[in-house]
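Team,

Forwarding the record for the chain on the shared tracking sheet. I've put the sequence and predicted structure together so nobody has to dig through attachments.
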Amino acid sequence: MRTAVVVMGVIVALLAALALAAWLLLRGYLRRRLPQIRGRIVVEGVTASVTIGRDGVGVPHVEAGTMADAAFAMGFVHAQDRLWQLDVSRRVAAGRLSEFAGPDAVPADRFLRRVGLMRAAEREASTLAGDGLVMLNAYAAGVNAIITSNRRPLPIEFSLTRIRPAPWRPADSIAVAKLLNLGLALNWDIELQRLHLLQAIGPEKAAELDLVYPDANPTILAAAAGAAPAGTGDVLELYREAARWIPSQGGGSNSWAVTGRRTAGGGPLLCNDPHLPPGVPSVWYEAHIRVADDFASTGVTTPGLPFPILGHNRDIAWGYTNSFADVQDLVIEEFDNAAGHRYRTETGFAATEVLREVIRVRGRSDVVEEVLITRHGPIVDRLDDLKHAVHQGLALHWTMYEWPGDTAGAMLAIQRAKTWNDFSVAHTMVDGPSQNVVYADREGHIGYLVSGRIPIRRGGTSGLPIPGWTGEAAWSGYLTAAEMPQVFDPPDGIIITANNRVVAADFPHHISNDYMNGYRAQRLAELLDKPALTADDMRGFQLDLVCPPAREVLELLRGTGELDGDAERARHRLISWDAAMRSDSTEPLLYEAFCRRLAEHALRPLCGDAWSILAGTTADHAVFEYPGNIIGRLLPDLLRRWRSDDVSLFRGTSVGWRQVAEAALRAAGDDAAQQGGRRSRRTWGVAHRLDLTHPIARSAPRAGAILNVASFPIGGTSDTVMATTYNPAHPFRTALWAPSWRTVMDPQTWASSTGVHLGGQSGQPGSRNYGDLVGAWRTNRQHPLLWERQAVAAARRATLVLTPSVAEGPPGSGDA
């Protein structure tokens, strides 16, 4: 017996030693790939020495003599920490995923070749001039200084995918911006949803179910609209595949600003938390940049673009949320034959532009995608009726295709803005994506505007695809800066944007019909309705879990009276709940399951199985899995009908809302019971878990042991200020979006500004900064956005100096 114990002990010790050795080997393998962050590197591309200090969370603090040298340094650090992310973003935009992912990525590449982001980027790059050209050339040179250096191995993803990055170009940076634009443009998937519902149940029923914004919820410019003072065929499958790789698939966000008379410190505060799909690496990369003594900015960048997208400079702070502006139309084109090389217009048939896009596929023969382009845009889907010899397609009419664009110039102008007027003028250069822009400055002002081009349509706005041969699909121009929604120093001293309706019905110009439901804005208005607000208050609000529509549901359930059996037990649990979507509670799970079943039982009498098109529950939603569904736009409509006892959905039956609620409660109890094993494990957090998963690990799960960062229970839902959202087709895991960056900025004292993003600064799994911010993010423990030189120096953990090449040092020498 004693011998057996000894033998087992030896075996366990050997296994432990082997595991330790394997871990040490892997650690060493990964750490060899980490960049040099100390010392001096001679590079070709800067005019004078540039200092890059890094603090404990890996934030680079760049000190340069010129804007071009600063852009070079940002390209350099992006490539040091996020080279694979840079390369894959470029490949996504260009439709070149199949080169390393093989046949599985062909649908995504076909879709992206049709949309033509890289074509648009290269056209814009060909017209670059002035400071914008200098900036993007310098940024590209910084990226390429890392790509061309052979002193250290490439990040592990390049070994796993067996690819190498090509040199970076200015067009690649513009393509990254276009990719973000694509991910945040949400009109066409809603149009497709309406089209499919129309085809399934007919125009009368579909019109009855067209969803409108709830009047009781906030409108951003309800009382302050106007100008500010000068101060499907296979297309759904293609979209779904592409959505795996696009970094900003729809998503909601929160941003708000208050004036000094509402704060304890007497100065304005600006808060922002954009909601994007959680993943690895983080979509954001924090940076602090100083150029001599006349420029400084800090905030979060996105790899591919050199300066902060969200943040502040010396004078102003800004934040964004998606405006949901109507910037896209799907146009039905009619062709004279199956080839589609001529399309119908109001004056006869015109020649279609035909492009042959060759898609290289690893391990397979090339695939040729024939892209058809009409005057309205590329054909993204065909609607052929072969039986009746009708040949049609859907063209994407999108502001991004309009000429010209100036991504680089707009970014520079925003960075350099000192006043509201500067800032407003800078945003007239932004073609997209259209955003709600919130502003605050050192002088105590706050402001709001909608950015991007918003088209003026000749015909009405049905929210459905429109015929392209009448001439009505053409746009007659764009809203001018004076016509765009905006306000400066609103009388009530508060601005709230949470993807809610932008303007009231009497606004003279069409902005959009399709917003989110406004519940987050409603809750923020409640939270901010108090005196002497502080930055700590704001950080607390960003974690708020109260769900306004849940409060409405509970009130309606109280009014049903006692029910029978399991339905009554579920009703009793819910009406005793406080409507907070806490991760350790079971009631939020029951509530979400109830909402899903409420939609089914309320809509099925009218729609049959087509109810799921509106609810998005049986298949991934078109384009970006964006939920135009029961917890977004459908639930308020159902609650409105329930409150008013509107039984028109149940025509021809004896069903009423009490019976619908009872059936939904009974089914919801069963659904909740299927989540987890023991009853104690059936909490919302367990069902709603958030996974920080690397894209490679989705198709190669074994790589997840190295590349994935974390998986943890989480609270919230899409209607809480802390917005965490699941795909209704795959409940209830947090997958659609979560707060990607949280910040509270104080223009009165920039050093008091704070922020944290989800994940870590580094994209390399061997780095201590690969996922080190997750714990801080979960509790919203924001770190200071270091600003003053003394604070930056005190927090510095490493310093790297980039030195221009000279005769005695060959270009690019040094350990990069």
